[in-house]
Every structure is written in C-alpha cells, then in structure tokens.
Design goal:
about 400 residues; alpha/beta; Aspartate Aminotransferase, domain 2; about 35% helix
Length: about 400
Amino acid sequence: MKTIHQRFTPHPDLHTAVEYLNKTHLETTSLPDTLPLSGIGETQTLELLAPHILGKATHLDAPFALAHMDPPTPWITWAIALWNARLNQNLLHPATSPFAKGAEERVIEWLSPLFGMSGGHFCAGSTLANLTALWAARECAGVMEVVASEAAHISIPKAAHLLGLNYRPIPVCKDGTLDASSLGDLSKSALVLTEGTTTLGALDTLTLCGKAAWTHVDAAWAGALRLSPMYASLLEGIEYADSIAISTHKWFFQPKDSAIIFFKDSEKAHKAISFGSSYLATPNVGIQGSRCASAVLLLATLLAWGKEGLADCIEHTMQSAHKLAQFLQAESRIETLATGQTGINVFRPLHIGTQELFDKLPIGMFSTCTVFNQHWIRSVSANPLADTQIIIKTLTIALE
C-alpha cells in the first residue's frame, strides 16, 4: 500500500510539469486592466498566470496547515480533472456522458450501503445537497418547518427560506450539540442533525433519527468517518435517517465542487424532485441541470486507494488532531473548548489575548471563531500531510 505522502505527491512526470508552471524565478506580471484585443498565446498565458494562481495560492498541503475544512487533493484527481475538462461531460444528457453517468451510479452503489441508504446523486457541494434533501422532505413528507440546532450550517436556514418553510433554531448544549429537550412537536418538521458542526465538530445525537416527519443528517464534514473501522461507531444510527448530505470535497479529499445527497428511499425521493422536458432524454433529477462528472474523480480515488487507503488518510488526520489535543490539554496556558472529536480543536490562551497569539502564528496554520460570544482559535485536521510536531513546536514558541 502506498504511503500517505505518495497519494498526495505527484508522479515524477506530473511533478516536473507542476514545477515548470511554478518556477520561482518567473516574474509576477500584473494582469491587464481591460480585456485584451489580441491574445498572447497559451504558453505565455501559463507563464503569466503561474506566479498568480500557484504562487499566490494558499497551500493546503503545507506541513502546518490546519485552518479550514479544505484538504489537499490526491494527484490522481488532477489527472482525471484534466480528462474531464477535455471531454466536458454533462450528466444532464446521458448521450454526452455514457461512462460518467455509469461511474456516478457505481460510486453511489459502493457508498450507499455504508450509510444505510438506497441511493442518491452527486451535486456541487453540501449546500445544494442540504437544499435537495429538504426539498425532498417537503414533497415526500409534507413538512412545514425545518428544525436544526443553532450550530447548524448556514445552508440549512438558507434552504428553509428558499423552500418557503418556517425555520426553527434549537439551542445548543455546552458541547455544541443540539439540545434535544428543546425540540417540541416534530410531527410536521424536517429535523436536521449535524454530524461535525463547522465550529466545534460536534455530533448531534443520532438517536433522534425517526422522531420527526423527516430526518436529514448534514454529515458534510464527519460523514467520511463511516468508512473508518476505527471511527465508524461515532455515526452509529445514521442509517435511520431519511437523507444524508456528504461533502466529498472535505474528508474524501476531492476537488471542489463535489458532494453527495443520499436517500433512504431514493426512488421515491428522486421521483418527487424530478422534472422532464421535451428536450431531455431522461428526467432531470435534483436541483442542478447541467453538471460535471465529479464522480469520476472520486471513482479514480477509490480505485487507486481502496476503502482501506481512504480510511488510512482519515484516521491519520484524526490521530494528528488527538496529538494536538493532548498537547493543548496538558498546556497550563491554554483553555480548550473542543478536543479533536472529529478532528477539530478549539482553544485560546489564558495569559494573552486570543488574537495576539493568533497573530504570532504562520498564516494558514489555524483559523479563529466566535463561540458563546468568546474569541477562540480553531484547528481543523483536514490535511494528511500536516506535521504535528512542527505545529506543536511553533505553538509552544508563540505562547512564550
């Protein structure tokens, strides 16, 4: 089995091409202020843009990068993305994407049983996946309101607003999970449970599945843990949900924009959210019309790594988060709020201001957040190439 570094470090031929585009001696030239009348050619354009696109980007594979839920991507996806761009497959029309459509179906077939679902489809991000789920809830279960914790992702109230449904936020407990004692009547509700809240990585209790007219699980972040024998039990009970959203451009390490919406009864749900037209060979399922073949990239990753390889990367990031959590909990100058349950640590210094400590750290190492009206530093273990020893050493120096 390949090492984690081999999965994310390109083949020598690809590495040479990347280095060519990322030559450090290339002069950074300003982009033109107006649309050019005549082009400069493809090669010169690459040389013009490389210092901007590559040189000015945030490198998510840096050894200290733990700031956001945005992982580096495996090099196999770079190659497949180029193939996709060349072919421009459109999942709206089966005739233009015969293999890509079958590839999506195969990936859904592989992954659905892990979550106790019967099927689903890809979409461009979990914001659309959540909207799709709540649309299906309105059509299939006649829900009139959406109920979720105050820590739910912004896409949940946004979806309720777009669908004309009442939105009822529920207070959270000190650990960031939904306060089940405040739920009230759910007979006409779509209950959204968040598995891996954005700020604290909290896991709402899945024992609430089935307590509402429709239960949707927003597992955009933590859903991938289901593939890990070591951590799958954290999502025990997710199989009783009616729908599940997963961001594959998070812990599945895929390029954006890529997510999956799963349904317990996918045939019923898809029928309820499908529209036909005279120009379509088959009904258009879901919110998007034209959409790209993002499933092919995940197919390639799963073929290259296997379930064990993906689980290995997830477990590696989780273990890195636990090591950082152990340091934070043992450090007398630090107060912790979240300690790595789903790869997220939230902490702040006791002897200096939070922002003062944050400003001493490398840009991109961590991010900041506000929880219970207090300012905290947040680390997200999405980068398998992060070096925990370097991070702890850097943090120790900054605490002085």
